Amino acid sequence: MSKLNWGFLGTSFISLIMADAIHAEGSTRIHSVAGRSEVRLKVFAEKYDVEHTFDDFNELIEDKAIDIIYIALPNHIHHEYVIKAANAGKAILCENSLSVDMEKTDQALKAVAENDVFFVEGLMYLNHPYAAAVRDVVASGELGEIRSITAQYCASIARFVNPHSKGALYNLGCYPTSLMHLLLQTAFPAHIFENYNISAMGRRGVDGNICESAATLRLNNGVVCQLHTAEDYGLHAGFTVLGSRASLVLNSNPWLPDAAGNILTVTPYEKPGDTRTITADSNAFIYQVSAVREAIVAGKKALESPAPGVEDSRQIMHILTDWEAATVIA
After folding, report:
1. 257-286 in b/e burial notation, b at 16+ Cβ within 10 A?
2. At what angle do helices 174-187 and 310-326 cross, to 10 degrees?
3. Can you tell me the distance from the alpha carbon of 85 to that of 162, in angstroms, rounded to the nearest whole number?
4. Which strand ranges, in their side-by-side order, compose the sheet holding 91-94?
């Protein structure tokens, strides 16, 4: 089979990171890119040796040479182009968050199902061995019964993001939420997300969006999760799981894993901790590119866990939209 062809929708900073990953992985190629800025299109095309450029997203989607559509547009229009790409029969990698509300999320995922196309949300870190290692610690039972999770991700990105993308919850909160989701799904039956209570406090930024929020989520089995995110200060990631026998602390940023420096510590209560380093071949974006390629070549419609499936993405969006609705502005 010849190399699979990517079509990029958007030329933002995340498009550049993905383009670097595709070039580094080397088994697929960027065939086309579409964007609204003629200057940025030209720079992108020259840097990554892309032959075809479009100023119309729809024209790129309809190009029969394209195998995979990469949607790197603002969150609030993700669903629109998921639907268009699905209707065109294309495989889809859509950046997170999948949308900004459940109505749009369901519209997008309905189109994916009706057209029976490959789809994955771009939670790239879940394709990296570090995510699998974290999941495996929980699955092994060495923590005992999971009692609580505390997760935090803050980064000063507010000045870079589209104000219609709805702020910190959908730009950053999706990361701790999705890792929490993976580990709870690993530890408990799938219906763990059918009933939970959530409360939150936050504040709005200059664009009117929630720029910071802290939430407490209590599941129907008594597990308590605390989530915090902010997009106008800092660069900090934290993730801790408390079990009945031991704790798990992620010492490095789980949402930006690289080839080296991925560290976690398991500490049985009142005993010394066991610090483990997870080495890998590359960063999470390169792993994501490889996983997408391998799945499409194999005729699969989704990636395998710990990468998110369609229902995982829907549940994550449900938590995020509930978090938004629950946030009381201080």
Report:
1. bbeeebebbbeeeeeeeeeeebebebbbbb
2. 120
3. 22
4. 52-54, 28-34, 4-9, 68-71, 91-94, 119-121
Is the pLDDT at 60 greater than 70? The verdict is: yes
Q: Residue 148: is it exposed, middle or buried by C-beta count within 10 angstroms (0-12/13-18/19+)?
A: middle
pLDDT tens digits, one per residue of 273-315:
999 999 999 999 999 999 999 999 999 999 999 999 999 999 9
Tokens for 297, please give them. Answer: 């070549």
Nearest of 23, 17, 13, 19 to residue 33 by alpha carbon: 19
**3-state class (DSSP) for residue 153:** strand
Which 3 state secondary structure label does DSSP give 178?
helix
Instruction: Give me the amino acid identity at 313.
Output: S
**3-state SS class at 329:** strand
> What token pair was written down for 138?
């929980």
Reported confidence tier of residue 1, pLDDT bands at 50, 70, 90 = low
d(CA 107, CA 116): 14
Query: Any residues with CB less than 8 A from the CB of 294 and at least 6 apart, and which?
Result: none
Dist CA 177 CA 149 (whole Å): 10
Q: Is 238 helix (H, G, I), strand (E, B) or coil?
A: strand
